[in-house]
Write a structure and sequence with these properties.
4-stranded antiparallel beta sheet, two-stranded antiparallel ribbon
Length: about 70
């Protein structure tokens, strides 16, 4: 995931660069990715596999302290 650095093995974003594609899509530090293109993910291995199978645009659903992010 370009512009994101992982600090934990689960699907939580450790550090998100606001200028990256992930940051421009609205993902922030601490968000936990739930699914990519409707496929649930549990960890960064799942995320890498999902992005490898995806096209150029993907739908990411995540949770943050304030609630769901889509």
């Amino acid at each position: 995931l370009n512009g994101v650095r992982l600090l934990r093995p689960d699907a939580a974003i450790g550090v998100s660069d606001p200028a990256s594609p992930a940051g421009r899509a609205g993902l922030r530090t601490g968000d936990r990715i739930r699914s990519i293109d409707g496929v649930p993910v549990a960890d960064w291995v799942d995320i890498e596999v999902a992005f490898a199978r995806a096209g150029t645009a993907v739908r990411v659903e995540a949770d943050r302290a304030e609630g769901p992010v889509a």
